[in-house]
Amino acid sequence: GMARSLRINPNSATALIHAGWLMIYTARPTEAIPLFERVRRLSPLHPQIGVATCGIGAAQLTLGNDDAALEALEQALAEYPEFATTRIQLIAVQSRLGNIAEAQRHADWLKRKVPHHTVSMQLEINQNRSPDWEGPMIAGLRATGFPE
């Protein structure tokens, strides 16, 4: 599994990214951050660097550190503008910060890219994942008019 992969190649950016997201999904955001930061140090030009930076934002969002989450997610957006997960989390953090116009801008992008996206689809995607991570995303989707 993941632990074996990291033992074999502890500097694999891809393995570190997967391990970091596994930590997010299993409610271990503080363990995820160093994995994603390591990717950024080891492989700053990795084609999926925006996925790692988005992971830092996800961890900060889960921990309730909205300013740090926003900073990481804005950077992730610059690194990988087409990653829908970054947009969904930007909707979440901007909604929670009360920046509804910014949340709506990201929601409008998501509605253009994934016109059939709904709250129930997001709940299904996030099934059995950390409620502290999922909750703000669901609230943000509802606040920006996504159908149930």
Structural class estimated from helices and strands? mainly alpha
| Strand tally | 0
Strand content: under 5%
Instruction: Determine the fraction of residues in helical runs and give it as a percent range.
Output: over 70%
Number of helices: 9
Largest sheet: none
Shape: globular
**Which stretches are low in confidence, meaning pLDDT under 50 for 5 or more residues running?**
none
| End-to-end distance | 36 Å
N-to-C SSE series? Answer: HHHHHHHHH
The radius of gyration is 15 Å
Mean pLDDT comes to 93
Feature tags:
about 150 residues, mainly alpha, about 0% strand, globular
Protein topology:
Blueprint: H1 2-8, H2 13-25, H3 29-42, H4 49-63, H5 66-79, H6 84-96, H7 100-113, H8 119-125, H9 131-143
Helix pairs in contact: 1-2, 2-3, 2-4, 3-4, 4-5, 4-6, 4-9, 5-6, 6-7, 6-9
Tell me briefly what this model is.
The chain is mainly alpha-helical.
Descriptive overview:
The chain has helices at 2-8, 13-25, 29-42, 49-63, 66-79, 84-96, 100-113, 119-125, 131-143. It is mostly helical and 148 residues long. The radius of gyration is 15 Å and the shape is globular. The termini are far apart. The model has no long low-confidence stretch (mean pLDDT 93).
